[in-house]
Amino acid sequence: MAFRATVLTLYPEMFPGHLDFSLAGKAAERGQWSLDTVQIRDFATDKHRTVDDTPAGGGAGMVLKPDVLARAIDSASENDNRPRLLMSPRGKPLTQERVRQLAAGDGVIIVCGRFEGVDQRVIEARELQEVSIGDYVLSGGEPAALILLDAIVRILPGVMGNDLSGLHESFEGGLLEHPHYTRPQEWEGREIPAILTSGNHGAIEKWRHDQAVSLTKERRPDLIRAQKAEKAG
């Protein structure tokens, strides 16, 4: 069964965006995955198609209404067991492990928030799993949804052509990826490390691993600490 993504948004015209190109676009043409959008505003019941209201307790901005969003979610997920995700800066950080879990399923239903946020009651009542792509705030969940889908689609079976391509990337195995080089052998006085042209595959793999460990210690020591904690536990 092909991977199915359904995105609930106030701006369906933002999709498929960059996913219409390159590997993801070709995979969609081959039927390996599909994307459809749901306009949340279609589920408003007043003549102005209102989807937001002022925050209870006061404060700046507006909040996405639970009744309107719930109707949109129910319409998109009737008799559907796909996980329901809400792109949110307060969600659990997206990891490569989580991406692989999602890619192994039948698909996802993604809610793109706007304004100050989404009414907590609909998050709880519709069991939305909040997902964050980083410690920053965007104007809406649409760019985050595109990033999430990009990460998922590229590792679906057959999408990259060579499935081994995804096994040596950053965050696979808990490390950042090693440096890459290609011809010409010398460029602006800089040489490809001799080990990479030695033909000694065992030595090359060790060099790549050592480089990955070194880079991770320098740039993401939190990943090293997580590995140590996992082993100790």
From TrEMBL:
Top EC category: transferase
Alphabetically ordered keywords of this record: Cytoplasm, Methyltransferase, S-adenosyl-L-methionine, Transferase, tRNA processing
SUPFAM superfamilies named in the record: alpha/beta knot (SSF75217)
Domain tRNA methyltransferase TRMD/TRM10-type: 4-225
An example Gene Ontology biological process: methylation
Residues the record lists as binding S-adenosyl-L-methionine: 113, 133-138
PANTHER family: TRNA (GUANINE-N(1)-)-METHYLTRANSFERASE (PTHR46417:SF1)
Main location: cytoplasm
Catalytic activity: guanosine(37) in tRNA + S-adenosyl-L-methionine = N(1)-methylguanosine(37) in tRNA + S-adenosyl-L-homocysteine + H(+)
EC code(s) of this entry: 2.1.1.228
Lineage: Bacteria, Pseudomonadati, Pseudomonadota, Alphaproteobacteria, Hyphomicrobiales
Family indicated by similarity: Belongs to the RNA methyltransferase TrmD family.
Protein localization: Cytoplasm
Protein name, entry field: tRNA (guanine-N(1)-)-methyltransferase
Species assigned in the record: Rhizobium mesosinicum
Pfam entry (one): tRNA_m1G_MT
TM regions (residue ranges): none
Subunit comment: Homodimer.
Transmembrane helix among keywords: no
Molecular function via GO: tRNA (guanine(37)-N1)-methyltransferase activity
Job of this protein: Specifically methylates guanosine-37 in various tRNAs.
